[in-house]
Amino acid sequence: MNSLWRPSMTERDSRLPSLITFQHRIFNVLFTQKEKTQMTRKRILAILSVLLVASLVLTACPAPAPAATSADEGQQAAPAPAEGLVNITYSYGSRGIPADLQMVEDAMNEILHEKIGVNLTLEPIDFGAFNDKMQLRLSAGEECDIIFTAPWINSYANNVANGVLAPLDDLLLNHAPGLWGSMPPTTWDAARVNGVIYGVINQQIFPKPWGVHPRKDLAEKYGLDLDSVTKWEDMEPWLADVRDGEGITPVFVAAPGRGLFLSQYYGFDPLDDGIGFLGMKADDETLTAVNMVETVEFQMAAESTKRWVDEGYMPLEPLPNDEARSAFRAGQYAMGYHVEKPGNDVEAQNAYGFEFLSKSLTVPLILDTSGATATMNAICSTSKNPGKAMEVLEEFNTNAYIYNLLSRGIEGVHWVWEDEANQVMRFPDGVDGNTSTYNPNTDWMFGNQFNAYYRDAKQVGAWEATKEMNDTAFPSEALGFVVDREPIKTEIAQTSAVYNEFVLPIQYGWVAYEDGAPEAIEKLNEAGAQTIINEVNRQLQEWRAKNPR
Fold first, then answer.
1. How many domains does the chain contain in total?
2. Is 366 helix (H, G, I), strand (E, B) or coil?
3. How far apart are CA 62 and CA 353, in angstroms?
4. pLDDT by residue (tens digit) across 468-516?
5. By three-state DSSP, how is residue 78 classified?
6. Is 133 inside any structural domain?
7. Are the beta carbons of 327 and 436 closer than 8 angstroms?
8. pTM score, two decimals?
9. What's the domain range around 192?
10. Chain segment 337-376, per-residue pLDDT in tens
């Protein structure tokens, strides 16, 4: 992590725009950058059709900052650039629109105007609408510059297949040498589709150490020995005690629902997160893709999830994300389960106000293509200035000051130093994560997270520990393989609809495995699941021939 000088803003009213401008002018002169019970099918489909776009990864992320009442209020029309400046837009998901968005944008532009001749317009879009809005804009061929894309939202694979993303290989070499050199070629290979890079990988945790983060007070009150917990089912006695003693549903789940089948936990490489049933055992040297719904691991997870729902450990009808998170802050849940990366207990505390314990239950950790490409930024094929857009991405990833402006806000306004020597910041007195006027808490979305200032002294060293986790994770036999969707795009669309209708209710614990799995598997096969598996296996063998271990 870079240790950067920046002017202090602690001895003045930092909310005055003239003084913010003064701070950044000083910075520009002096600073040199080194540059996140059974139900009927009718009921299930009604819930899924409304709520399916809610993101699974949001369950452990912190709360929204005070925001505008509509996502559109935060998306101002891009102003005409000043003479000599190129206007670049950045569209990304957000939990509401931060009240001080314009202030932060202005502060960033104080630097970007002078350094790279760019006027940046931030375009946050509420996560609930982000996927649909981006797909509409991209399919309509609207002009755009930088956009957030991932396997799980605003689908990277679909965007590449639809030709809406610009190829980045030459742009990286010519406009972002620092970014290009910050990751080894094997990591960049994970973003290649047919040999071409279309997305900039955001450096963060790459493997997925799925596990649990129970509240510390309730762990102590009900005698949880987390050291003895090695699998989901080991949590059940404690969950029963919390349910009975506190009168709450212990496990946090937000709509549309969630289950315990998380592919890497069970040793699978999902190969393509957008094809929900597809997977391969990460240590399988034969590179054989399978329908994971047919595996004993999926059955075990589905049965445990159904038991957790039936026993009242997990909600049958989860609340919408914002309501569920508010309920967690109000003490109505006792545990979350997520990617338990280094420092996740502190992140959960900042989000919900309780102290947490944290433990990964995933052994071994698996490094797969989907993990390395979990969050990316890309450049639209309609961008009129792709070179300048790439220069902005260079700043997001190599300029720690710019990155922290975007992810943390302005020093003295949205945060102050707790321990500058160790890069530990905190909210100003009287402010917390819920009342801050700029607190996106989506560091993983914007760029190289290892440049982020720590939010708590207990997190110091987490970035180094995370990097070590990345470096020591077990590499999947298919690391670097990307499914070419073009030959099977019809079958992917058909099986996706079937998966949502027949598999997700089993996965979420709404329908028992023995009742729903036979029909789900039959419907998947009728929709072309085996055709997909056969084609992916053909591609895997072709890829292995070109990429021997």
1. 1
2. strand
3. 10
4. 888 888 989 998 888 988 899 999 999 999 999 999 999 999 999 999 9
5. coil
6. yes
7. no
8. 0.72
9. 1-36+68-203+374-458
10. 999 999 899 889 988 999 999 999 999 999 999 899 999 9
